[in-house]
Amino acid sequence: MTDKPPFTATELTRPFWDATLERRFLLQYDPAADRYQFYPRPISLFTPRTDLEWREASGAGTLVAVSLCHTPGPGFGPETPYILSIVRLREGPRVFARVTGAAYEDLRVGQEMRLVWGEERGEGREYLFAPAGANP
Amino acid sequence: MRFLRNRPVAIVGYADTKLVRNSGRTAAGIAGEVVASLLDTAGIERDEIDGFATTLAMSEAGNPFWSNLLAEHLGLCPRWCQSTDIGGSSNLGNIARAAMAIEAGLCTTVLCLGADAVSSHDATDQTGHRTEFCQPVGYIGPLVAFGLLSSAYAARYGMPDEALAKLAVAQREGALLNEVACDILRKPLTEADYLSSRMVSHPLRLLDCVMRCDGGYAVLVTTTARARALGFDRVVHPISYREIVNFDPKDAVDDITVSGFSVVGPEALRDAELRPDDIDVLQPYDDFLIAVLLQLEQCGFCGPGQAQSFVKERDLRFSGDLPINTGGGQVSAGQPGLAGGGVNLVEALKQLFGDARARQVRDPRRALVTGIGVLPYGRNWGSSNAMVLERA
Lengths: 136, 392
Description:
The structure holds two protein chains of two kinds. In chain A, 6% of the residues lie in helices and 40% in strands. Chain A is mostly beta strands. In chain A, strands 6-5-4-7-8 form a five-stranded antiparallel β-sheet. A three-stranded antiparallel β-sheet of chain A has the order 2-1-3. The two termini of chain A are 22 Å apart. The mean pLDDT of chain A is 96. Chain B is of the alpha/beta class. Chain B folds into two domains: 2-122 and 213-236, Peroxisomal Thiolase, Chain A, domain 1 (3-Layer(aba) Sandwich), CATH 3.40.47.10; 142-181 and 197-204 and 237-391, Peroxisomal Thiolase, Chain A, domain 1 (3-Layer(aba) Sandwich), CATH 3.40.47.10. Chain B has 13 helices and eleven strands. In chain B, strands 1-7-4-2-3 form a five-stranded mixed β-sheet, sandwiched between helices. Chain B has a four-stranded mixed β-sheet with strand order 8-11-10-9, with helices on both faces. In chain B, strand 5 (199-202) and strand 6 (204-205) form a beta hairpin. In chain B, helix 6 (161-176) crosses helix 11 (307-313) and helix 9 crosses helix 10. The radius of gyration of chain B is 19 Å and the shape is globular. The A-B interface holds A 4-8, 10, 13, 39, 45-46, 64-74, 76, 79, 81-82, 84-86, 88, 92-98, 104, 108-110, 121-122, 124, 126-128 and B 129, 131-140, 143-144, 147-152, 154-155, 198-204, 249-251, 254, 256, 377-379. Strand 4 (60-69) of chain A pairs antiparallel with strand 5 (199-202) of chain B.
């Protein structure tokens, strides 16, 4: 059992969290601007459109920032220290998630990462990143 | 706010409380203490105040009528009233908003207040990406955000450990001379102490971070004409102000180390017709020490990635050639929640009014004060603002 905060879906985010249960990571896509965005917003950041498409991300990205967290969030105590990151997806948006499959000392900003899936919790499944070459 | 150049608005008084960790007090209690102190030291009648601007209080975050409740608690009947919610930028933002309300003719004399008892009671609930996309994956708040930001800066320019250590010690020396700083922070600190402090969110150290506390401040803003009529012979003018909120929403800047200060810092100096060298005392918002280095670079004191070598060449103490956060800043005095930016603001006023006693900068004429607020998703901080204050 886990005491971590559950993933919760709202009007804006239900398609995203539903897809995570099928291990698919969806981005909002604005065809008029040809731009992706994440997290899900009520309106395109680039045009006045609200009828955005949901498109599956490739899962490939680049490590933008990485931190070894010694001060756990609620429910994360047993896994401390754990690695948190910002990864820029190939499609453009930056995503904040934990890193798995690597030691903190071996991670380098700029390296290629890929999205992997963690545990199901509440209305969604956790997404994490691993180095592009690592086994899950 | 070009009208500020004509010096139509004056700060005539200020007050602050002792900063205390876990005081067990309330924001309203702190507000009452600091307003009584302001009325006493400024020597004006409460009925003179016809405008009121406050920050929110994290300890009272559930109350959607906060400014009105404070007015009622304090016995004010303002003709213009607002609470400002641009996070740590709200403190400086309120001085600017007060100037605008005065210029617009809505009021003449504004009480700008910040009071928060967040270390005793935190009632905040940050809905949106914080609770939906951050906390469920292990986010614990600003520590992680600034650990990540530091790693991005380090990857680009190298980790500026020497500059951070020097800044930590300089600010702590200020806190040792500042009787309102939190007592538990008023202990001598060496660069070795800083460098050996434990990692909280690698590469962020414990001594990079603010400690939350309880406290408050009040500032009185009026027209320059009214200040003269009331007999104030010492006044400080806000002479320029710029703010930006939710910097770079379209991700045009593919570098998370760049903040809104790259816009508002140079603008605020240009509006005041000043260069960085013209600033006598710098009071940058310091929720984390790395933020001070980024501001030095992005306001134009040095170039991108040059903070380490720049700080090495300068003396940051009150007696030095570039005094920074002379009362300890928030990092060494404490962060009273959303009133935190008032620590930097009030220290600038103490210096310009010549009230800083043992840590008084010699005859300062101009101060640059800044504010930082709000952590957006996957980026740098969201709001940045900057004001130049000038002693008349």
